[in-house]
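Reopening this ticket.

The earlier resolution said the output was attached, but the attachment link was broken on my side. Pasting everything inline this time so it's all in one place.
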Amino acid sequence: MSIFKECDIRGIFPTEIDEEKTYLIGRAFASSLPVGSRIVVGGDVRKSTPLLQEALVKGLLESGGEVIDLGVVPTPLLYFARKTTRRRRDYGYRKPQSSGIQRA
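Inline output:
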């Protein structure tokens, strides 16, 4: 089953989505934006969040993104932040073993 869904990217950690895939997604996303674009990243309290968030931020930075890492935050805060950003990292809407990336 593909991790690429209609409105997000998600899968079971670590079999379907892992640090390497998340890093590559970060690289690809930031590469699609002008260099220096501001991208806000936030996550929830899942055990996979620190690993995936670190990988995502690394990929975003290495492809020229300016990352604002909010750490663990509620989803409504990320929606508020979208007024000045293009991407959020959201771990809070699926089963505990499922993680993903969603555009806000």
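Reporter confirms the inline version is readable. Strands lie at 8-12, 38-43, 66-72, 98-102. The radius of gyration is 12 Å.
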